[in-house]
Amino acid sequence: MYLNVQIGNGNYQPQTRAKAGVEYTYNLSGNYQETRIYINGANHLSGIGNLAPMYPYAFDLRALAHIKTLDIGTDATGYVNTKFTELVLPNYAPLLERLNIKNCHSVAGTINLKNANNIREVDAEGTVITGISLPDYTNIQKLHLPSSVTALNLYGARFLDDFAIINSLGNTDYSNLFKLHVYDSDYSENVDWMSIAVAMLEKRSLETELSLLRLNVATIGDIQTLDPMNEFKTTLEAARGTLELGGTIHVTGSWSEVEKDTYEETWPALTLDVSEGTLQPKYKVVYKYDDYYDSDNNLVRGQEIKTLYIRRGEPVIDIWQYFDDETQEIVHMLDEMPSRASTVQNNYQFGLRSYNEYIELSGWKENGATEPISAGSPVLVNSNMIIETYFKVNTRTYPIKWYL
Question: In the chain, where are the structural domains located?
């Protein structure tokens, strides 16, 4: 083929008869200020070198169907391109292996590589893109994205070995990632999907869509890692969110039969491999509001508050407030103190007080009991249990004023 290069409106470079597999270099003489470069007859080009030093404004590469590498950005110290705003890629680029737009701060939107079936490396750190489309069963090995990404779908990314979402400070950051769907893409121990899932769920956003299916090498320590996910799943689904797990997760820390059975029942497509874990017998302890009769004498069934899995022989803990001996801090496992609305006759106080301070465990009682648990007489867990709220009943008084 013949290669023609035009710099701006003039400055034509000599026509070159290009041969396959040969690299051609065009040297620009003088004080180069032109912002436009046209390459004609370029449909068989496999690469156009490192374009980062040119600080491009935009690239229209629709004709480069055989391009293999696109290096428009760089990780060179101090490099920032704020002018580059538009990247138009070929609709069909089956040979494209690498796309580097790192530190092109103004590149936004979604990068469409759906038809780049040979893509292996994408580095978009330092951009403000919100998503990327990749082929199903892609060959992608390295995928670095900015923390502006809000959604990511990976289907059959079996070779992915280097995955990161990085903020402008260079730190891992999933604060804006609300939708993550990963299917049959868990084959590298260097990509920890379970840790990513835990980080995503720390936001507890009802917009979350999380599905990790056909997991293969995923590993967690203590099986209790799954407890917040199990608890949040019901809340998410009520808000039309998603939290699905499937495949195999390897448990290397402590586990119990009751937890394993619970989580595998929650996610029927999930298998928990506990062969490398340590079995610790535990029992299911359900904390709930106690049943009571309202002012119309109707029975109100208490709703479940939280479920814990406590080791056999250990005491029931106060999920509202307890002192952690290890951290030497007061811990709250609930966002709000349990409460009950007052009636015309009574006020209800959760637990007991000493000098207006809540007494640990006094807001809870064993199922069917009439008195609260005492910290001095701990209730030991030796079977599945139900723990109910305890409200102290105070008769309401009303002031009466007489006027003469």
Answer: 2-279, 283-395
More confident residue, 324 or 285: 285
DSSP per-residue letters across 169-233: TS-B--TT--EEEEES----TTS-HHHHHHHHHTT--TT-EEEEEEESS-EESSGGGGHHHHHHH
Cβ contacts of 196 within 8 Å, gap of 6 or more: 174, 180
pLDDT digits (tens, 9 = 90+) for 222-276: 999 999 999 899 888 888 889 999 999 999 999 999 999 999 999 999 999 999 9
Separation CA 71–CA 101 (nearest Å): 7
Whether pLDDT at 65 is above 80: no
Structural tokens at position 219: 């590993």
Cα Rg, the chain, nearest whole Å: 31
- Given a contact cutoff of 8 angstroms between Cβ atoms, the answer to whether 215 and 245 are in contact is yes
**Tokens 């060959």 — which residue?**
139
Q: How far is Cα 321 from Cα 287, in angstroms, rounded to an integer?
A: 14
Cβ neighbours for 308, distance < 8 A, ≥ 6 positions apart: 284, 285, 287, 317, 319
Please tell me the distance from the alpha carbon of residue 99 to that of residue 91, in angstroms, as a whole number. Answer: 15
- 382, two tokens: 């030796």
